[in-house]
Amino acid sequence: MKKIDLWFWALATSSKGNPFVAVITIMCFYVMFAFAEASIETLFFGEHFLHWLDPIFALAFMTAAGYSVWQCAKYQMHKEI
Asked: Kindly report the CA angle at 78 between 62 and 16, in degrees rounded to 5?
């Protein structure tokens, strides 16, 4: 859990505590992940297909976006103190 905290603290620090920038960054990671996943499926199977893991991946990235907003709030509180 400490590594995850460190990753999201780095995201909050690099976005200077701006939650909008942090969420947009996570959204870009999700788009690139979906693009890479579709490319690999097309490479191996000849077509992209929908499977039951797609909603789980989307939920994981939504959770990451929420956690990044929380880390941005911690960053801003830390900056005020």
From this structure: 55
Asked if residue 65 lies in contact with residue 23, where contact means CB atoms within 8 angstroms, the answer is yes
pTM: 0.85
Tokens of 1: 């859990």
Give residue limits of the domains in the chain: 2-80
**What is the residue-averaged pLDDT of the chain?**
92
Asked if 25 and 11 count as a contact pair (C-beta separation under 8 A), the reply is: yes
- Give yes or no for residue 50 having a pLDDT over 80: no
User: Residue 10: is its pLDDT beyond 80?
Assistant: yes
Chain mean position to CA 21: 11
Place of tokens 């920038």: 21
